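Lab notebook: predicted structure, single chain.

Context: the supervisor wants predicted structures on file for every construct in the current expression panel, including those that have not yet been purified. This is the next one on the list. No modifications to the sequence; it matches the entry in the shared construct table.
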Amino acid sequence: MFRHKGTKRTFSHNLRLASTLSLIAGIVNTAGVLSVATLTTNVTGHFAYFAEAISLKNYSKAITFILFILFFLLGAFSCNLLVEIVSLKKPRIAHALPMFIEVILLSSIGLCEDLNSNYIAYSLLFAMGLQNALVTKISQSTVRTTHLTGLFTDLGIELSQLFFYKKPTELKRLTRNIYLRLSIILFFFFGCLFGGIFYKDYNLKILLFAALILIVALLFDNIVVYYHLTKRRLKSNLHDD
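Prediction complete. Output recorded below exactly as produced.
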């Protein structure tokens, strides 16, 4: 689900990518809200908080909200930069480095709960910037996993189009898009629910579970690719014989 790009990418790839990473984003979202009382999966609300801080002449707080926004931006920037650099020599594993960094960040925060609240927010926003940029790049903007506003907008538009699209090919494409949007929303919700239920007992350690999901997804992706490559080699050898 990470390696396939362009025309090689299928609906199934996008669905697995969306459900897995939106689940992670949901957990991170709840962890950020409950631990440091701030948004850590998107930056939309931080602009309002920044404006409020400026109006109250609380300039140090305003700078903090600007830093929140910039760390998300830095995560997205770093992700694409790393992918492009690695793609020059090893395109098959270009996605792995940003995901590995995300695993390290989530695991570190989960294990070091006594960090300054701003540092926790910076790290989570950077991690979600990484994730959102990678998902956007891999799926060619088809999948977004860290915030839901645009998804609900797209879902509303596509649901209304069900009354007008009659051709089988159009209807198939439309229903797939709706199913994909609903999957992202539901798995994000499940992630938030999981985080909320277990935060009371485990606090930021719930991020370790999010990191584990990402590790399993990466390993599974490699196993699937290795399986298909081995299968092709065996077929090729049989034909040669």
